[in-house]
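Re: your question from the hallway

Yes, I did run it. Sequences:
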Amino acid sequence: MSAGAPPPSAVEPLEDIALKVGPPRDDASMARRERVRVLLHSKSFIAGAIIVGFFVFCAIFGELLVLQDPFASNPLNQLQSPSANYWFGTDRLGRDVFSRVIVGARDILIIAPAATLLGTVLGTALGLVTGYFRGTVDDVLSRLIEAVLALPVVLVGILALTSLGPSNVTIILVVGFVFAPVIARTVRAAVLSERELEYVSAARLRNEKTPYILFAEILPNVMGPVVVEFTVRLGYAIFVVATLSFLGLGVQPPSPDWGLQVFEHYGLISGGFWWPVLFPAAAIAILVIGVNLIADGLTQAFER
Amino acid sequence: MTRFILKRIGLGLITLWLLSVLVFFLANVLPGNVARRVLGPFASPEAVAQLNHQLGTDKPLITQYLNQMKGYLSGDMGTSVSTKQPISDVLWPALGHSAKLALLAFIIVVPLSIFGGVVAALHEGSTRDRIITVGGLSATAVPDFVWAVVLLIVFSLGLGIFPSTAAWPDGSGPLTQIKYLLLPAFCLVFVLFGYIARMARAGTIESLDADYTRTAVIKGLPQRTVLWRHVLRNSLLPTIAVIATQVGYLMGGLVVIELIFNYQGIGQMIFRAATQKDFPALEAAVLVVGVVFLVSTLIADVLYSILNPRVRLGSADQ
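Structure:
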C-alpha cells in the first residue's frame, strides 16, 4: 500500500557523508524534526489526533465523566427517548445510552490497538525475513499470504471465533495473525529496495550477524512504512473488531462496547427506537474517521 | 498469452489448495473436539462420541481432510449439523441471492465511483476533489453495519421511503425486488465508493500527465476525444483490477448487511452457521466465498493482461 520511498537518511549522496562530522545520528534527527513539522501543519493529522485523543480520554476516565452508571439497568425506565436527564435516551434495559457510549470507548481502544500491534510486530519480522532472504522462503510465504488474503478478514474472524469461543484475547490473536501477512507484504517491498543499498553490504562485510543486520540496520530505515501501515491497519482493526462485536462474536455483554450496543438494539429501529443504535454507531464512525485522518497525515509526512 | 493465463490458473490452484487447508484448520483443528463445541459442555460423552463419529471427526485429520475435499470436488458439501439437510441445498440458492444483491451494488457503484474519481482528477486540488477523496475514504473506512443502521434510521424510519427489510413478499416483480434491495445495496456502495474512486482518480491523474496526452492536446484534438481515447482508456485499467479485488470484500460485508436486512444470502447463512456452531455449513460457505474471490481475481488479472499487453509480456519472463 504505502511501500513509499526510503526515508531520506538512507540515500545520502557521497559528498554528504564526508561532511558528516557531527553526532552520528544528525541527519536522522533532522529528518525526524522535519517530519514532525509537516505533521503539525497537516490539518487532517491535527483533526484526527483531536478525535482519537477525545476517545482515549473517554476510555481512560470513563465512569468519572458521566453522571449515570453505565451498567445500572432500570426496568421502569426502558427505551426512554433522549431528554435532559438522559442525553442519548435509555436502552432496552433502561441503561443510560450516553454514559454507555462514553465508557464503551474502552474495549475497542484496548483490543484494536493490541491486535494491530501484534500484527505489526509479527508482520514486520516476517517482512524483514522474506524480503532479505527471498528465494524459496519468500515464494512459499507469498503464496500463504495470498491464501490468507483471499478471505475477508471478517470471515476468518467469524470462523476462528466460532472455533475458539469469543473472548477479547482471542479477537486480538485472530486479528493480529490475519493482519501480519498484509503488513509483511508492505515491509517486504520496502526491504527489497533497502537490501541493495551500501550500508547493508558494509554491514555484511563487517561480518555482522544476520539478525543484527535485519533489526539494527534495515529495520530503522523501513520504520516509515511500518508506522504508516500501523495506523492504516489500526483503522481497519477498529472496523473488524466492531463488526465482530456487532455479530455477537466479539466483546460480550454486559460490556457497553459500541458494536455490541448496535447488535443488541438494531432490531428495534423499525419500532422507532433509533437512539440506542444511532449514538454508538456514530461513535464508531467518528473514531474510525479520526484514525484514518491520522493515517492520512502520517502518510504525507513520511512520503515527502 | 496462453502461457500467461495457464500460469495464473496454476498459481490460482495452489492458492486455492492453501485456502482449503487454512479453512480446514480453522474449522476442524482449532476447535479441538468439534462435537463438544457443537453440543456444548453439558452433553454426555456418548453423544459427543456419536456426533464425532457421524461427522467423521474421530478419524485422523489427514483422512478427514481428504474425505472432505473428495466430497467438495464431487459437489457434496456435507450435511448441516443444525438442520440435518444437505448443505448444498441451502448454499447455492443463498449464493444466488447474495449475487443478486452484490450485482445491484456493483451496477450502482462502478459508474458512480469511476465518474467521481475522474471528476476529482480533472479538478485535482480543488474543493470538489477534496470532498470526493476525503468523503469517499471516510465512507469506506466506516463499518458497513454503521451505514446500514444509519440508512435504516433515515430512509426507513424517518422518511418511510424504503422497507426496513430486504425480504420482499413472495411473488414480487423485479422492480419491487429492487426497491427492497436498494438500501442494503447502498450500504455496500458507500463502502466500495472510496476505493474505486481513489484508483480511478490516481489512474486519470497519471495519464493526464503522460506524454501521449500532451501530444494529443498539441495535435489539436478536441478535448472530448483526448479524454475518452487517450486519458480514460489508460486510466481505467488499474480500476478494473481494484473492482475485482473488492468482490471478496463485498462478500465479507454481506454477512453484516444481510443480517440487518434479514436477507437470505450466503452472509446470513454464515452468520447462522456461526451462531449455531454448525461447522460443516460454516466451512463450506466460507470456502465458497474464498473461491468466488479467487476466481474474480483471476478473471481480473486475465482481463487486465488482455487490455494491457505490457503486464503480460513483463510477467512472462519471470
